[in-house]
Specification:
CATH topology of the largest domain: Transferase(Phosphotransferase), domain 1
Order of helices and strands: EEEEEHEEEHHEEHHHHHHHHEEH
Oligomer: single chain
Number of helices: 12
Bound molecules: adenosine-5'-diphosphate, magnesium ion
Radius of gyration: 21 Å
Structural class: alpha+beta
CATH architecture of the largest domain: Orthogonal Bundle
Shape: globular
Mean pLDDT: 83
Strand content: 15-25%
Number of domains: 2
Helix content: 25-40%
Low-confidence stretches: 1-10, 189-197, 328-360
CATH superfamily of the largest domain: Transferase(Phosphotransferase) domain 1
């Protein structure tokens, strides 16, 4: 684990990565229960810069810090080996004054949860073919993680552990990328996550055996995926008003509420859903590869192919101005000074966030 110091210059914050590298923290992209995600600029001493996402967790207590950082480093090393178009790549991790952080691929767009909310606010659902396209991509991302190998060729069998629609990122370009593999706070073992609150928040997508305290495995991811797909197609797993302990009890039972909304689900899709949502892990798909294969077969049979164009259009409909601006970021270069050769980049990234622009 590389240690990181905080460098403050003006309003800018830097996280040190070691080897002459650092990440400059830019605007906030979103907040989760345990972390704030910033847009960042990863810089090397050779002037190589890359836009990234930086997930900065809440500070952990000093007696937990070592364990948390070791866990985070171990999982980051594993997840960094996943090279798949449906997985948001992970580059680095570190710690700043007790705050663990992870540096990963920037997926400029919105989460699937946001797209669902946008449709729900108009009493609508994401169209079946688009939902199936997204789901098939998610399944392939999970499958990609399963078959990922380290640099010695050892298959790592990475599982997500806490998949939900908030971890599925949809880019303005129409890509679908699963984020937060093994780095979800459920893996970063602090007392706050082991608390009832932390568990209950995630209970709705949790496989029954995980809710009962067993270690998640490839089959638990299959169950969580089933919940996600079902939620997209027919509605939420649990009733909306539940106490924490009720949510956990239902999660342990593997409860799935009767369909609140019933489109005419094609038989093949129904079969995939039922097998993914089996309470007994033995009866489920053994892993995401088997699931992804089956789902893709069904989905292709329905004539749903590459849906990136339709996804792009669906996102543009909801967030047109944002999508347009973010796909064409402009760099304002510093005052030109070519005579001295290399000029360190110190420009400003603009026109990224229209909300920001409106404030100016
Ligand atoms: N790699 C990423 N690229 C772009 N935005 C991201 C990335 N990861 C997370 N975000 C944004 O930050 C928000 C908060 O993320 P996170 O802390 O993982 O919480 P949660 O997954 O519970 O929403 C997400 O909803 C998403 O909008
Ligand atoms: Mg997340």
């Amino acid at each position: 684990m590389v240690s990181s110091k905080r460098r403050q210059s003006g309003h800018e914050e830097h996280l040190e990565l070691g080897d002459g590298r650092h990440v400059k923290l830019l605007d906030v992209l979103g907040k989760g229960a345990f972390a704030t995600v910033h847009r960042g600029l990863m810089c090397s001493e050779h002037g190589v810069r890359r836009s990234v996402a930086v997930k900065l967790f809440s500070a952990v207590s000093s007696d937990e810090a070592d364990l948390v950082l070791r866990t985070l480093a171990r999982t980051t090393r594993r997840v960094a080996c996943i090279d798949h178009p449906n997985v948001a790549g992970v580059y680095e991790c570190g710690e700043r004054r007790g705050q663990p952080f992870v540096v990963s691929e920037l997926v400029a767009g919105v989460s699937l949860a946001k797209l669902q909310e946008a449709h729900a606010s108009r009493q609508r659902r994401i169209p079946l073919d688009l939902a199936l396209f997204i789901a098939a991509e998610v399944a392939e991302g999970l499958a990609g993680a399963r078959v990922a190998r380290d640099h010695e060729g050892v298959q790592l069998g990475v599982v997500h552990h806490a998949l939900s629609s908030r971890d599925v990122l949809l880019s303005w370009r129409g890509e679908v990328k699963v984020s937060d593999f093994e780095t979800s706070m459920s893996r970063v073992a602090t007392s706050s996550i082991r608390s009832l609150r932390g568990v209950a928040n995630r209970a709705a997508t949790m496989a029954p055996e995980v809710a009962r305290g067993q270690e998640a495995d490839a089959r638990s991811d299959v169950f969580s995926f089933g919940v996600l797909l079902r939620e997209l197609l027919v509605g939420p797993r649990f009733p909306s008003v539940l106490t924490n302990s009720e949510a956990i009890r239902l999660a342990r039972e593997g409860y799935v509420q009767p369909m609140t909304f019933q489109p005419h689900l094609p038989q093949g899709v129904d079969a995939v859903l039922s097998r993914a949502l089996e309470v007994d892990p033995e009866a489920r798909y053994p892993n995401a590869c088997a699931l992804a294969f089956d789902l893709r077969r069904v989905v292709l049979g329905m004539g749903v192919g590459d849906g990136r164009y339709f996804l792009r259009k669906a996102l543009e409909r909801e967030w047109s101005q944002y999508a347009e601006e973010i796909t064409t970021p402009r760099f304002i270069a510093p005052a030109a000074n070519d005579e001295e050769g290399y000029e360190p980049y110190d420009g400003e990234l603009v026109a990224i966030d229209p909300r920001e622009k409106r404030r100016r």
